[in-house]
Write a structure and sequence with these properties.
Structural class: mainly alpha
Number of strands: 0
Shape: globular
Radius of gyration: 18 Å
Helix content: over 70%
Strand content: under 5%
Length: about 120
């Protein structure tokens, strides 16, 4: 399924429930942040090894997948409402990051591009 096909399903779901009235750009961005917080909550206070174990549990792993899906759905709605294609924006950002983080300077480093 393409992102455009998925977006159509999301919009059909939304429109059938007459929720577009609530989907202002501001509300969608706020909701994206809330859902990202819920994703973060799935690993709160857990070590890396705890998280690896969590991924082996089908119920807990499904919860992480669903929280990721919520964030993704809201991001698609944000992009749609703001009038841009999210995949195109990601490609553009990846190109910018390639310029900011040249391999020869960034390999193995967690430094911000301004500190390379």
């Amino acid at each position: 399924m393409t992102t455009n096909e998925l977006l159509k399903q999301i919009l059909d779901f939304r429109d059938a429930r007459e929720w577009e009235q609530f989907h202002t750009l501001r509300n969608l961005i706020v909701s994206t942040s809330i859902e990202a917080g819920e994703l973060l909550e799935t690993i709160q206070w857990k070590s890396d090894s705890d998280i690896e174990s969590l991924l082996l549990d089908p119920v807990k792993s499904r919860n992480i997948r669903h929280e990721c899906a919520d964030v993704f759905i809201y991001l698609l709605l944000v992009a749609h409402t703001a009038g841009f294609d999210l995949a195109d924006a990601a490609v553009e950002k990846l190109r910018l990051n390639a310029e900011r983080y040249p391999v020869d300077k960034a390999r193995g480093s967690s430094s911000k591009y301004t500190d390379l």
